[in-house]
Amino acid sequence: MGQRTSDKALEPALLKKVPLFGEFSENDRTAVAALMVSRRYPKHAVLVYEGDAGDALFIVVKGNVAVTRVSNDGKETILTILREGDFFGEMGVLDGSPRSATIKAIGEVEAAMLPRKDFLELLAKSPNMSLSLVLALSARLRETNQAIQAAAYQDIRTRLAALLLHLSGQFGETVEGGIRLTLRLTNQEMANMIGTTRETANRMLNRFWDEKLIDMQTGHIVIADAAKLKTLVG
Question: What are the boundaries of each domain within the chain?
């Protein structure tokens, strides 16, 4: 288990943000919240390590986390980023296998844990929850397949354009001049998402800036020309 601050009870109202419990009544959410413990983690903390026991489902209550794996040569890859309302750890909970990835806090994060036994009992009682889980897993599998295909056939420029468009869909807000990414990633984190070095990612971001595809004056990336990025992706 990763670094954390003290545990506390989960507020039932927070489960309203979680699609997995979207069809639950207020009373049901209160009952589920009573089974869960909420923990706060500082920036860059590890919530779980690859290989840990899959003994609980995690819900991201506040903040964002990166799902990462390290290759045999020690290179870290960020598989995806999860935001408020997302969950992780479901595979280990379902089949009892060890964690298949390491989960890291991008900024300060609050996450809640639901023990495996309680989660499996809820699935057995709630067809809607089971359906939500299947849909979420299908979407993740599709996203993973797309990422694998992109890594095999796209160059770094195309991969970066695709990443920026993906992030704008998840974390974008409309501002004057384009779409601002509310999530701040380091160049190393972005490099880890597209399979390149920090120096290459930095160089390509600056090239996009020079080409007026993005703007980075404020510290947040602003997508200034989404149409051109889509053209690059094809």
Answer: 7-152, 154-233
Q: Tens place of pLDDT for every residue, the chain, 234 residues?
A: 555 556 777 888 888 888 888 777 888 888 888 889 999 999 999 999 999 988 899 999 999 999 999 888 888 899 899 999 898 988 888 888 888 899 999 999 999 999 999 988 888 888 877 887 888 888 877 877 766 666 666 799 999 999 999 999 999 999 999 999 999 999 999 999 998 999 999 999 999 999 999 999 988 999 999 999 999 998
Name the 3-class secondary structure at 208. Answer: helix
- State the first-to-last Cα distance of the chain, in angstroms, to the nearest integer: 42
Cβ contacts of 43 within 8 Å, gap of 6 or more: 105, 106, 107, 108
Least Cα distance to 46 among 98, 102, 88, 8 occurs for 102
Q: pTM surpassing 0.85? A: no
**Topology (CATH level 3) of domain 7-152:** Jelly Rolls (2.60.120)
Tell me the helices (H) and strands (E) count for the chain, helix number first. Answer: 8, 13
Edge-to-edge strands, sheet with 222-223: 172-175, 178-181, 222-223, 214-215
Handedness of CA 101, 103, 106, 111 (dihedral sign): positive
| Rounded-to-integer distance, Cα 42 and Cα 206, Å | 30
Query: How far is Cα 233 from Cα 228, in angstroms, rounded to an integer?
Result: 9
Task: Provide long-range contacts, Cβ within 8 A and 24+ apart, for 186-191.
Answer: 189/66, 189/78, 189/106, 190/160, 190/163
Q: Which of 111, 226, 91, 92 is nearest to 167 (CA)?
A: 226
- Evaluate whether the domain defined by 154-233 bears CATH number 1.10.10.10: yes
